[in-house]
Amino acid sequence: MKLILAAAAAIALSGAAMAEQLPPKRIFESPDLNGPRARGVKLSPDGRSVTYIKVRADDLTVTDLWVADVAGGEPRLLIDGKTLAPDARELSEAEKARRERAGVATRGVVDYAWDDQGRLILAPVEGDLYVYDLGSQQVRQLTRTPGDEIDAKVSPRGRFVSYVRDDNLYVTPIAGGAEQAITQGGTELKSWGTAEFIAQEEMDRHTGYWWSPDESRIAIAFVDQTGVDVVDRPEVGATGAKVVAQRYPRVGRPNAVVDLYVQDLAGGQRLKVDLGDNPDIYLGRVTWSKDGRTLYVQRQSRDQRRLDLLAVDPVTGKGKVILTETSPHWVDLTDDFRPLADGTFLWSSERSGFRHLYLHRADGRVLRQVTKGQWPVAALLGVDEARGVAIFSANKDVPVERRLYELSYKAPAAPRALTPAGGWWSAEVARTGGAFVGTYEDPKTPPQTALYRAEGTRVRWIEENRLAAGHPFAPYVDRLRAPEYGTIKAADGSPLWYSLRTPPGFDPAKKYPVIVQVYGGPGSARVFKGWQSPEDQILLDAGYILFRLDNRGTPNRSTAFKTAIDRKLGQLEVDDQIAGARWLQALPYVDKDRIGVTGWSYGGYMTLLLLTAPDSPFRAGVSGAPVTDWTLYDTHYTERFMGTPNDNKDGYERSEVVRRLDRLKPGSLLLVHGMADDNVTFDHSTRVMFDLQAKGVPFETMVYPGLRHRGGWTPTNRLHRAMQALDFFDRRLK
What we know:
- The structure is a single chain.
- By secondary structure, the chain is of the alpha+beta class.
- It is 16% helix and 34% strand.
- Strand 29 and strand 30 form a beta hairpin.
- The two termini are 15 Å apart.
């Protein structure tokens, strides 16, 4: 490692005097180099304060809950996560899986919820529930049980706390009193109130129960996994190993059967919702109307080419389809459905070729298209019903920038921008009034969070996070170079956006090695005008150019651009990334024979495909947790883009990795995988290992005991993974 750091320092300090070298170890130490960032931001129901989760300055693995008053003053600590949970405890498998699906990497306060009256905050901490009372400004422990209370919620009127424990749903009075079991008899295979694996992992639905607005009823999912295949996967830790019999719905195989019930809390009656005659469907979303008289259910077909919106009578369980979206490709699930007080509702659709918002009557008929244009709505963030305004985010000007807009859904005109251009915005919008907490970032601005009025003027900073003296990244700020953004053309003429970053001390008269950072899969874009991870500085300081390209199939573009990869994963994406590499090779400051590639998950899959493409321009690659055979991956994701092996045999054969390994150059691969991965299971990598060993092809590998796809990664092993990649690239590209 000393040789690596010495080489990096020599490159960085050549020429004029440079800023302080960024030691790789410092990137993974406290305080966070990104500065104080507000996460999980929420406006209090009365609009007087803003709450948010923040990583501790003294420990990157623990998060606390903070509050900032709208009227002014310094933000203050509300719930100290380290005090409530001084030591990490062993969580249940259900909670581990839930955190893995949600991407939670810390402990302490990792989630929380306000009651609708703004009197209290509910926070789950390491398996138990705590309540912060705004009146007394005290924290009290609500549950103290051997099991984990998961998916905890405050009921709409603030009288109860609900949660799932040991596969059953419970309710406890917030003022104190006996716990009530709403369901009984739940088991791991037949559970109440939980979101099944596929809903959490691929559908962005992390709950399995929904309160009615008046607290009289709860809609509850019942999940039967008995028909789902058992996949025995090894879970290898530092001190031992076990075999986990995981219910994993692989492509073309049975899914969990999900039923929906409505429970009357006063009378105790439970009735089944009629979801249709076909049980092989997905329960996409469940939403109550404002008056609680209608339960809306989004039902997605198994092939995902049809999405129905059902209006259900919660008294009888009977429903009718009031709206249907279809596509020859797939229909995405979103959170854009918003029932309004007058019975109408907002809905997003791609029927025009771009995702746009529509206003519908209560019976489902379209009243009007709200947004229009050759650009997609990213998300409906909020509705101010008093003004008849929808607040949404969109990549309206260019795909690499995102802004917030508002537009009347009663009399649509041109959208009005609420935030300036130049970077990337995200926001949490108040339930009423249109005020929002906005977070802005760009390549030279770490995420800054502030409260804004409905018209877009800033009220106060929540976390200014200004990159100035005293900021953790300040000693290294002069090493930052803004990326170059631009486009190249795909084979069909589509513009493909790229970003290119050069190392400190860059001299265009010299030639540099390049590392392409790839994801390439549907649903995720890597090229955007946002703050870049300080971890990238390890490779930049070592003298590498970093390049990213968003190929066909990635979001923030037209429906046609997004669906171009339909039934042929691993084909057009590879063509586009190779076109990007050829473009790089023509640049005068790029060494065309020293181009590497790296990616994780779908990016790991792409890395293997790019290394084994005919006449590959890539000399070396680091492939992390790669999918190597789509028949081993889950139903909802894979079938959305590929169908099943029975109806798309050619597509599956062409997408498979092992059949391409004859073209892998000896020594060009570093294969990385966590040894407890329950998403891209470890056998994806072992297939590659076995085949290359059988062929006698040298390669390198690094496995991480106990680590999952996203969860469990500590600063220590993140540092190790980064330095392992640097060492590999230095040996192969220099």
